[in-house]
């Protein structure tokens, strides 16, 4: 969750740099755009949605490749290592499964993974 917040913050920072300051006629001074104003101007998907879409696209590409290709072998590789303490880390398959079940993916493609 903290990584998503950092990504959103970075994305808004870049948009503020691109769009620049605006002149406020009521207060007669220059100011930066608010988050709502940025999202109203920029009609692009958020950075996390772009990452999810690219992740699903890459996963579909690897699924269609032959079984002896390196990316497909690495995707389904099971490493013989000791299990670390604490919460298990998310694997790429877990992230893709969550992305495929999300509502925005169903709206865009009409498919469920």
List the helices and strands and how they pair.
Layout lengths: L1 H18 L2 E3 L4 E3 L3 H7 L5 H18 L5 H6 L16 H10 L1 H7 L4
How would you characterize this protein structure?
This protein has 113 residues and is mainly α. The chain has 6 helices and 2 strands, in the order H-E-E-H-H-H-H-H. The protein has helices spanning 2-19, 35-41, 47-64, 70-75, 92-101, 103-109, and strands spanning 22-24, 29-31. A two-stranded antiparallel sheet has the order 1-2.
List keywords for this structure.
113 residues, mainly alpha, 2 domains, two-stranded antiparallel sheet, 58% helix, elongated
Q: What's the order of the H and E elements?
A: HEEHHHHH
Number of strands: 2
Helix share, percent: 55-70%
User: What is the end-to-end distance?
Assistant: 23 Å
The biggest beta sheet reads: 2 strands, antiparallel
| Secondary structure tally, helices | 6
Unreliable residue runs: none
Kindly state the mean pLDDT as a whole number? 82
Approximately how much beta-strand content do the residues carry? 5-15%
Give the number of domains: 2
Helix- and strand-based class? mainly alpha
Q: What would the principal axes of the Cα set say about the shape?
A: elongated
